[in-house]
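Q: Given only this backbone (260 positions), what sequence would you predict?
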């Protein structure tokens, strides 16, 4: 049976969609990815920066999500060059790259996510071709649109360079890491500094004005609703561990309320 062509038309519909909800996966198990991909989430995001994913787990989990018809994003570790192209070869529809602080960082990301003339990605899309449903030559023609490069904005320096980062050709969007942004804006003293709020509104506005995707990690449904109201369209709604813990706590609380 051929793979479902989960990439076909995905990036253009994401760029136009009102709110795209993905979730961060940190447990590197295809059963967890499959369970999340089987929900109403629009995609899943495998976290190689802070999650336990290695390359083998990414390959297995991309396939698990594809069987549920869902595309996968991968967050790579900071400054990890060649791995960016590798996860696209493995079938990730897009890469979310942490700590993109300068135009040079953004240009490096583009070099690894896009084929010439935009970038310098090397050819070898082993799993990406079946997931795109395209022939090799067609994939080469369309890959720069199919595969998204998303730069994380999570420092004061990135905020200072926001417009310049957004204007780098081949950067499809930005994605705020609110916790690291708070650590940066508070000089290392807070995980949730009030200074983050004003910055959040500006990032969503600037991304919208540049015609690029605005993304952010939301640690709760309330945060996600607030971020959507601020104009964010690509929301990382919680993490696999958070969903498990919250569902277990809610269930135990409900039963205890009626039995004690
Ligand atoms: C942050 O909040 O810094 C993140 O990277 C979210 O995943
Ligand atoms: Mg971060």
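A: Predicted residues:
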């Amino acid at each position: 049976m051929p793979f479902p062509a989960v990439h076909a038309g995905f990036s253009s519909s994401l760029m136009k969609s009102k709110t795209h909800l993905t979730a961060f996966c940190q447990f590197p198990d295809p059963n967890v990815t499959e369970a999340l991909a089987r929900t109403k989430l629009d995609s899943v995001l495998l976290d190689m920066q802070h999650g336990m994913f290695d390359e083998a787990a990414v390959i297995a989990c991309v396939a698990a999500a594809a069987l549920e018809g869902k595309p996968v994003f991968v967050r790579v570790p900071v400054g990890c060059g060649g791995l960016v192209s590798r996860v696209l070869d493995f079938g990730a529809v897009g890469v979310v790259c942490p700590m993109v602080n300068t135009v040079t960082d953004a240009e490096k990301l583009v070099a690894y996510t896009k084929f010439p003339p935009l970038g310098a990605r090397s050819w070898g899309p082993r799993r990406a071709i079946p997931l795109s449903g395209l022939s090799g030559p067609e994939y080469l023609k369309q890959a720069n649109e199919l595969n998204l490069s998303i730069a994380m904005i999570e420092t004061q320096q990135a905020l200072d360079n926001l417009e310049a980062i957004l204007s780098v050709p081949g950067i499809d969007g930005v994605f705020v890491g609110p916790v690291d942004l708070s650590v940066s804006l508070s000089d290392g003293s807070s995980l949730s500094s009030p200074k983050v709020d004003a910055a959040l509104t500006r990032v969503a506005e600037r991304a919208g004005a540049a015609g690029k995707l605005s993304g952010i990690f939301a640690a709760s449904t309330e945060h996600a609703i607030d971020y959507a109201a601020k104009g964010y369209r690509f929301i990382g709604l919680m993490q696999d561990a958070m969903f498990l813990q919250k569902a277990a706590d809610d269930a135990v609380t409900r039963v205890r309320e009626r039995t004690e």
